[in-house]
Amino acid sequence: MATFNSPPGWPAPPSADWQPPPGWKPDPAWPPAPAGWAFWLNARGARSRGPSGRYGAESPTKLIAAWAVGAGAFVVILAAIAGGNTPAASAPGATVTVPGPTATVTVAGPVVTVQQTVPGPTATVTQAPLPARTVTVPAPRTTTRTTDPVPLVQRTQSTAPKTTEPSDSVYYANCAAVRAAGKAPLYRGQPGYAAHLDRDGDGVACE
């Protein structure tokens, strides 16, 4: 529902939903309304055409013309914006162009607000390249096992056969002779052992 919007200096409506009756005219002593004043507002507070035949209501023909003018201006502004260059994404070592001030264009009639970027003084920002990242990869572990070489031919210890002289080839007359020869004591089976040298018969002579 459209509500009447009184211009500055006019008396306030008696109620929020008050509407001028058909044929109503403002008092000539009241100050004139500002140029382009919106006498009628919708529930959202935006400009409305208003009830047909009431004071300040816009005719459908005038509203359509205003919409056409606003749409044409909007298309022209969009074409101008689309013709501009889009700044590229910043990269290391790239040059970035900062846009200038922003202008707001308002078209009479239905409120159409368009923001257009007007080229202004540009600032060049140079971003230093990022340092290269150095990744250190640890060297693989190497395990060295030292094993003794296996000889091709295993050594075998050869034991020289013991040569035993027959006991009868050596003869000692007594223990004094055994001691003089450096053979004391004599054991049974050794060269020179004899029973007459082993008095106690325990197998050890000249103890």
Q: Average pLDDT, to the nearest integer?
A: 73
The coarse silhouette is rod-shaped
- Please mark out the parts with pLDDT under 50 across 5 or more consecutive residues, or reply none: 85-98, 102-109, 160-167
Give the number of helices.
2
How much of the polypeptide forms β-strand, as a percent range?
A: 5-15%
What's the alpha carbon Rg, rounded to whole Å?
Answer: 65 Å
Protein name: Excalibur calcium-binding domain-containing protein
InterPro entries: Excalibur_Ca-bd_domain
Keywords: Membrane, Transmembrane, Transmembrane helix
Pfam family, one: Excalibur
Please explain how this structure is put together.
- The chain is an alpha+beta fold and 207 residues long.
- Among the domains are: 1-18 and 32-58, no CATH class; 60-83 and 100-121, no CATH class; 166-207, no CATH class.
- The chain has two helices and eight strands; from the N terminus they run ββαββββαββ.
- The chain crosses the membrane at residues 63-82.
What's the helix and strand layout?
Layout: E1 3-4, E2 40-41, H1 60-82, E3 95-97, E4 102-107, E5 112-117, E6 124-126, H2 175-180, E7 186-187, E8 204-205
Antiparallel strand pairs: 1-2, 3-6, 4-5, 7-8
